[in-house]
Amino acid sequence: MTFPLNAPALAQVVAANGALIPRIGLGTWQSTHDEGVRAVRAALDAGYRHIDTAARYENEQAVGQALSVCGVPRDEVFVTTKVWHTELRAADFRRAAEASVARLGLDHVDLLLVHWPNPDVSLEETIGALNDAQRRGLTRHIGVSNFPVALLDRAVALSPLPLVANQCEYHPYLDQAKLLAACSRHGMALISHSPLGSGKLLADPVIADMARLHGKQPAQIILRWLIQQPGVAAVPKSSNPVRIGENLAVFDFELDAASMARIGALARADGRVSKPAWHPEWDTPDALHNPLPAAQP
Ligand code: A2P
């Protein structure tokens, strides 16, 4: 992957087991059809070089269409897609990965992720299929998504090729210290999905206060807090061109240690926003800075 020298925002990458992952990417969940095409085009025009999609988002064709007309050379954009958790047996995985790459209109993606773990399929089989996809050139790098520490450790142990990222929910309301430590131990990036807590964090009074102090938007404070941490990238979703631009403009200011700690102290027991029925058993934080009061008997 190459980066134009005159674009400092683009040079902000996480290096992880041989992959260079731009710290800010465009999340595209719920951006479909023309809206998806417009969002990805707006992002690429604004300078994004990292686009995050998934078979499940039903927008790979839209993402591919935007990539094909944007004029940005293919090798300058880091494209991630994901295989859904019902497709994790080897033959299904292979078909699903091939179909994703074809829908994108590409000959390979940059990162292929197992979207969610599935306890009904052996992890060995799935990780084998993931490795196979890389060996066959369908993707430059491989990784997982929504894997808690114990599963991540097993996946790493089962994978002959390096896993470069675990994409998980991460934002100031959700303590992910254990997962960050595990990713760091494995040389992997933690890519934050739902970095704005699906929008929930934007009204937080502490975030609003920091935004005022720094003359920034609340979303920029949250994203800066994330990408200022070693090994962390983020894929905020927006389909609004102004907000898409705003979310990339986080490389011209810094949060000091006290501000980082103040934002980190917002973590709470009910901070998780993504809770689908098929979620694995999540890691529990060691101690919350501001645990909710215990329920009264
Ligand atoms: P929209 O697409 O209308 O901009 P997350 O990435 O945590 O899932 O958050 C996505 C949500 O946050 C979407 O509802 C998105 O709405 C909104 N959003 C994204 N960027 C911003 C921003 N800079 N300011 C306000 N809301 C934003």
TrEMBL record:
InterPro entries: AKR, Aldo/ket_reductase_CS, NAD(P)_OxRdtase_dom_sf, NADP_OxRdtase_dom. Transmembrane segments: none annotated. It comes from the Bacteria. Residues 275-297 are annotated as: Disordered. The keyword NADP applies. Keywords: NADP, Oxidoreductase. Residues 23-266 form the NADP-dependent oxidoreductase domain. The keyword Nucleotide-binding does not apply. CDD domains: AKR_AKR3F3. Signal peptide: none annotated. Belongs to the aldo/keto reductase family. This is Diketogulonate reductase-like aldo/keto reductase. It comes from Caballeronia udeis.
